[in-house]
């Protein structure tokens, strides 16, 4: 994500509420349907189809504030629709709950929805999250001052989705009796689950893939996240995780002198040379995020979700990290070769930019702000059970970072207060899928809670692998997971039809 963010934790996974908003009529009648036809999802990742099916782009006029009455301004929320396989009247709607990025990115990386659209005879809707992509509540001013960011919350985003679905059902002929299933990955998966929890009358079920809804407060140990990353490296090559672990002390020693800083800058082909202790801290943070991102996208085929990468990229990286006991400068040269796989697999980068975060441009500034308000996820490492420098979770330091950056302080217990934490047994019709390789599974639901709160674990799966297109290289476990997900969605659709006499 190309933004400045607090150094207190990793970038967003890549990602609470009241009434359903105003009734149709009045301001809702001002909805804009600005159509741009002929756009496509390319499905360049894990699929043989390119270009993919076409979609239409629309903009819907949303309230900036769904929960107050003084702020009466509106903005245009972008959403994408494909009805190629939709059977009307009454065919279901698969609704992607957009997360921290441009909605076309998620259209391109959620091939599962396109793969099952024909079988389910479904309309596909991809809704963009406010403050991302084209959906800016205050236009160019949206990130200019914290006062304009006051409406960047998950609660407001869910209300946007609820109001948009109501509009679609009332404005699209044949959709009024359609079942709606929310689908999302990462933060979008969190939103999909919370959408079903908070608006069960709007969505009939939810598929929440790689959704770390329990990565808050003390619901899970704060070090599990980095332990999963470490295990991914440990099993991808001998000496690999140990090389990363030993690199931190090597960096610290080399960076003690100005000559050492210059050597590090040259050895890593950095665009901007390291000059001081703060630069070294940022450099190490950049490396940490690189290792984490590799774990997230350890897919069984070449992909470019975050960066262009080979199949099983950690195995490729680990080929350079076989000798953890190498002399420190040789070890760091090997670390560079490994990092270069991530940032320069195509060989086109003239230098490596440490101000470019490993997650690319997924979240811009939005996730940084959300992490400093609602999305307060504790992370820590100990350097023993993981391959990272020891670091405790320090909420006060985190809060101070956020205040310095945004002028706001986080509310660490808000998400659990609004969405229930682990007390979710009263909800229904949610699938929680998690990959065994994905660090975000640390905060995921990995055991079924009831017959309709179902956990699916994909041992060979990285970050929301099940939401990607079918591939000849997919492990059997993800094929089985997708089949089970479709089975549950069909069940929810039939339940909806029986309930509504459709």
How would you summarize this macromolecular structure in one to three sentences?
With 502 residues, the chain is an alpha/beta fold. It has helices at 103-108, 111-120, 154-171, 187-198, 224-234, 240-254, 258-267, 277-296, 313-318, 328-343, 366-371, 395-406, 414-419, 476-500; strands at 36-40, 54-63, 74-82, 93-97, 123-127, 180-185, 205-209, 430-435, 453-458. Helix content is 34%, strand content 11%.
The end-to-end distance, rounded to whole angstroms, is 44 Å
- Helix and strand element order: EEEEHHEHEHEHHHHHHHHHEEH
> Per DSSP, what share of the residues sits in E-state strands of 2 or more residues?
5-15%
Number of domains: 2
What integer is the average pLDDT? 89
**Unreliable residue runs:** 1-9, 14-38, 42-50, 358-363
Please provide the count of β strands. 9
**Dominant shape:** globular
